[in-house]
Predict the structure.
Amino acid sequence: LPSIIKSNLTSPLAKELARLLGPDSVVLSGPADKVAYSYDAAGVRALPELVVLPADTTDTAAVVRWAARRGLPVVARGAGTNLSGGTVPVAGGVVVELSRLDRIIAVDTRSRRATVGPGLTNLALQNHLAPLRYNFAPDPASQKVSTIGGNVGENAGGPHCLKYGVTVDHILGLTAVLSDGQIVQLGHGDGLEPGLNAVSAMSGSEGTLALFTEVVVRLETAPPAVQTLLVLYDQLEDAGRSVSEIIARRILPATLELMDRTTLQSIEESLQLGYPTDVEGALLIEVDGLAPGLSRQVALIEQICLTNGARSVAAAKDERERGRLWQGRRAAFGALARRSPIYSVQDATVPRNKLVEMMRIVQEVCAGHDLPVAIVAHAGDGNLHPIILYGEATPERLAVVHDANQEILRRAADMGGTISGEHGVGLEKLEFLSLAVDRPTLGLMHRVKNAFDPDERLNPGKAIPAIPVLAPAPADVTAQTGMTPLAAKVAAAAAAGDYLLPGAAGTRSAWSQGPRVESAILRLAASPERIELDTENLTVTVSASTSSERLREALAVDGFWLPPLDHGWHGSVGGDVATNQFAPTAATLGPIARWLLGARLVTGDGLEVRLGGQTMKNVAGYNLLHLLAGSFGRLGAITELTLRLWPRPEADLTLGCRLDEWLAAGGSKTDALGPWEELVGLTRPAALAAISQRDGDAQVLLRLAGLDEDVAWAAEQWHQATPLRALSATQQAERWGRWSEPLVEAAKGGCLERLQARPARSVQLLSYLAQGSGAWATCLISESAWRGVDADGDQGAQAEGLTVLDYRRGKGAGMGHGPLDERLRVAFDPHRVFAGPGGAAR
Amino acid sequence: MKMPLPEQVRVEALAELAKCNKCGFCLTNCPTYNVTGVEWEVARGRLALARAALDGELQAADLPDAIWSCILCRNCLPHCPPGVKMDRVMVAVRAALGEQLGVSPLRRAIIRGLLPRRGRLAAAATVGSLGQGLGLDRLLALWPDRRLRTAQRYAPRLTSPASVRRRIRAEGLYEGGQDAEVAVLLGCATEMGLPRVTLALGYLLRELGITATLLDAACCGLPAYGSGDLDGARLAARGVLHAVGGMPRLKALITPCVSCASYLEEYPQLFAGQPEAEAERAAALAELIKPASVFLAGAGLVEMLGRSEGGSLGRHTFHDPCHLAHYVGGKEQVREVLRALPGGEYVEMPGADSCCGAGGSFVITHPGHSDAVLERKVASIAATGAEVVTTACPGCLLQLKRGVQDLPGVRAQHLLEVAWDALSAGRKP
């Protein structure tokens, strides 16, 4: 590439920068260069002073360091497909174009991760993974062009988020360049490693906290069977009712995409794919899963749609037809541009059961302002895109559009939704952010920004409005009016210089950093246990002190499932989140962070903040929510949590065998999964784990959860190929119930070892575990294991390739491991109320 | 200062420009963006620059090479939801730039003085052929300008058109005269450098019982048009209009060059606003033009190939010229021919319809781009494991011939040649 395009150094600044960079990086500074990098897909324009296309991480860091010295703003940019003006250099400065860092650096299917350059397009990654039968779950409609770096920066969504979550749920690590040019490695593990999950806070930070030069993504096994349906409706309400009933009938499709009449007509005018043009709306439904049960699910969906007034249901006959259906949906915005190239697109998100109501509101508001509008919606997750086709950008017209947008976003926020589900706040939604994010929370976000970029040079004027940083409440103010008792207590502790450890029952306080002083435990159990189930939105909101066991039982009664709660530990949900509780499903269905949608928290200076919300997608402001998972009480006292749910599976079966039988049958000296990787992909187990009690009776357990015929078929496959045999219900309960034994032991006074082995599925790790005497637990396809050890026992594994991280009493299990932990902690807890006396890894 | 453009062209260009919503879907399908990664190397960026120039935000002299590095392949168009006809805008801007900054005298001399004039073209080819015979062309490769080196490697072995015509007469091909229903426009590259294609087309027509006539015309006008020289394009086009003027029974005008075919389809637009009689003739001619491969596919070639046996073509693949895939159309018909070739196994290459980097004079004006684009195409060809890659455009063919030099055992040929070879092989005992 570099030999074709040469640097264009027309200014002294450009020449100065070019001298600092390697020969393969390109610096552009001509008038045309500035014009070409003055926009993104949102339509706002501003000229940068310089454009740099760095060739590698080193040069990217050099650019940022130089810009810091020169006091120049830095704007990271990928393919420039941002829909909220996020990559427009409104403050001038340097555009750092990362699209050339588009390599697939490594693909490790064994550890289920890939390391890629930020400039790689989402689709290029998918195409690379497809033959390996893996995918990267986020699939924004712009996937053909939008880059992985951009996906992370915006915490992008896409149709498949309904079932698989958004980008943050699929990013394991980042190589980040901080505002001073420092290069840091974040994460790169399996998402279960100790320390704050700084990667999650970077996701959705819109280039305002750091630049990324490498991204480690999590790979998902590709669904073995997929069916795509196009359902036509004469009434939008019928489509909405169909969606509600599909969810109510315990079906979780991979996508539920809704398009209105104008959209369908535009797609057809633009691409002639055979989309209908005479209906009010159409649902594009995709169901994926195992082959045996798929047709029953499809038939059920078809029946639900027809009884709810669908005009017709058509299934894609082959991959080509499926591709055509999706091509139309993905081209929707562009196709509407054919009608009116000048348009405004929003991405308000509401709880999914309120989607049709919201669509009607959009139509009313737009009609009231005399604005033509088309709507495309991710009906499954309540995310809708009103596309206002306003024709010409006159000041009068723009003012009307602005009013309409404001009204739409306000109404969405009033409904418990958010102002941006996946496009980011960028420039265009800055003024609306306060509709969805309250002042204390915004204040916390500013502190985080300040901790990373005190001079506001990284993408200035984006993501969060430039209001003064909310100064920490002074420590000598004991309580302020309007504070809840809990906040007042925290403020009082701050004033007195006391240390607090949030906890409900205090069962996991053994891993706290400070000494276990009973008086320091901030008893959250004082707040009443509360479970609010929203069956239509598939969410549950609980007080943090709610017992996870009771929540699990309550959900089961109503037919729902929250897999990360199936861990057998007797503590609170808040504790599960705070300690990032290791559950058997962690490696397959994700750790608890992936199920987290919202939380309330009291910070170390008594701020009561609301992180996230009730919607599946939420990119309004920074994503600080996932930091709570594994925070060990150091960021604040969690008081309330909102989690997403899955319908309870029809069938739930566990197979088991002795570990030595398993390894012998597998026959591999290194890979604990033996020859059965493909079988995992085909049967998609809910858990594949190994556990042992103190007596060394190590077992492999495989949990299959899903449709009756799927589970029966999958069990048969495993039965034939491996020594695994179905366990009785009693055995199942008893085996999984022992999962948390190492933790229990450790809590009783022993210590806990957390082991890491790379690559994942290490036989070496298993033999190391089996040699010891303590109880242990590990997910076979992850790289993590937990083992209980005696307090004065051996100091961990010396075996080659294993990393041991001590969860010893007083050592501080949760914090100080990541390079950004301290910066983040200070933003939450300026007075060290939750940091504990001494002992902190500073 | 705003760019000087005839008002009508300006209005059209602006209307086309206004359709771009900057979604960026063009990014992955642009051959030049794929190899450079710079925003002004793709439709969205080029359009932004064009707009800035038309609005007066940028001066003509500020425009980077971007306006000229567009290959006009239209590969962005099928992926462009608002359907921006990128190529029209580029030509309009090039025309304006030509007005404002002037066209290089050499370029002007070639596109106006040489290409449209058969006599001069023939003379040039004869001289060139002698030069190549003496190895003088290799001197060009010693010149320290990459463009000349690339040109030398790209250029075909030139043939004197007179000798080709002698051969045609001797074989009794193209003897339809002025009353023929089918006329053949060879196009400059075929005429000067690919005599085997000229002969193959003649044999195939004769075999199918179609009497045709070779037109006494040279350039279709595309090189001038691509350079933004609309007057030059009309000058050349008039030569074609004149050549078919005396053929009252003409039903089809065919050409072994899909680029010529695609450009003849543009004649109505080129002559809009010209004297009415001429505009009408241009419009009528545009209705008759077809690429030879597509025409023959519908004239019995597929069936004839299907009936024949033998041949030892082996595994083969096809490169869709941009002018076929994204302009005139006919990919499917061509594939019917490909699948019917006896003794062959047709394999579709990945990205068959993405540009090879030839683009007429692009290969000479932008050798760096062209090489990088070609490299990707060669990788696609290699991925198929084919021994033969065929195509339907002389420009692409020359580029592919250059490209497959790096692939041992792989050769590039025009589809018409391969079709004729297969037929004639099948008839041998």
Summary: The mean pLDDT of chain B is 89. The longest helix of chain B spans residues 367-384.
